[in-house]
Write a structure and sequence with these properties.
- By secondary structure, the protein is mainly alpha-helical.
- It has one domain (2-34).
- Helix content is 49%, strand content 9%.
- The protein contains one helix and two strands, in the order ββα.
- It has one helix at residues 11-32, and strands at 2-3, 6-7.
- Strands 1-2 form a two-stranded antiparallel ribbon.
- β1 (2-3) and β2 form a beta hairpin.
- The chain starts with a strand and ends in a 13-residue tail after the last helix.
Length: 45
Protein backbone atom coordinates (compact mmCIF):
# COMPACT_ATOMS: atom_id res chain seq x y z
CA UNK A 1 0.00 0.00 0.00
CA UNK A 2 1.40 3.37 -0.99
CA UNK A 3 1.05 6.33 1.31
CA UNK A 4 1.61 9.55 -0.57
CA UNK A 5 3.79 7.62 -3.00
CA UNK A 6 5.90 6.23 -0.14
CA UNK A 7 5.79 2.51 0.62
CA UNK A 8 4.55 1.66 4.09
CA UNK A 9 7.91 0.02 4.82
CA UNK A 10 9.65 3.34 4.21
CA UNK A 11 7.65 5.30 6.76
CA UNK A 12 10.07 4.42 9.56
CA UNK A 13 13.03 5.63 7.50
CA UNK A 14 11.26 8.88 6.64
CA UNK A 15 10.40 9.41 10.28
CA UNK A 16 14.00 8.79 11.37
CA UNK A 17 15.32 11.12 8.67
CA UNK A 18 12.92 13.82 9.81
CA UNK A 19 13.94 13.29 13.43
CA UNK A 20 17.62 13.61 12.49
CA UNK A 21 16.86 16.82 10.58
CA UNK A 22 15.01 18.31 13.56
CA UNK A 23 17.86 17.25 15.84
CA UNK A 24 20.40 18.95 13.58
CA UNK A 25 18.31 22.13 13.42
CA UNK A 26 17.91 22.07 17.20
CA UNK A 27 21.65 21.56 17.66
CA UNK A 28 22.45 24.49 15.35
CA UNK A 29 19.88 26.63 17.16
CA UNK A 30 21.38 25.59 20.50
CA UNK A 31 24.89 26.41 19.32
CA UNK A 32 23.68 29.87 18.38
CA UNK A 33 22.10 30.34 21.81
CA UNK A 34 23.41 27.88 24.44
CA UNK A 35 20.61 28.80 26.84
CA UNK A 36 18.15 27.12 24.46
CA UNK A 37 19.83 23.71 24.46
CA UNK A 38 17.79 22.44 27.42
CA UNK A 39 14.49 23.62 25.93
CA UNK A 40 12.43 21.96 23.18
CA UNK A 41 13.19 23.13 19.66
CA UNK A 42 11.60 26.46 18.84
CA UNK A 43 12.01 28.35 15.55
CA UNK A 44 14.20 31.42 15.83
CA UNK A 45 12.15 34.59 16.18
Amino acid sequence: MAIGGIRAGDVGDVYRTGAHALCAISAINGARDPADTARPFQPAI
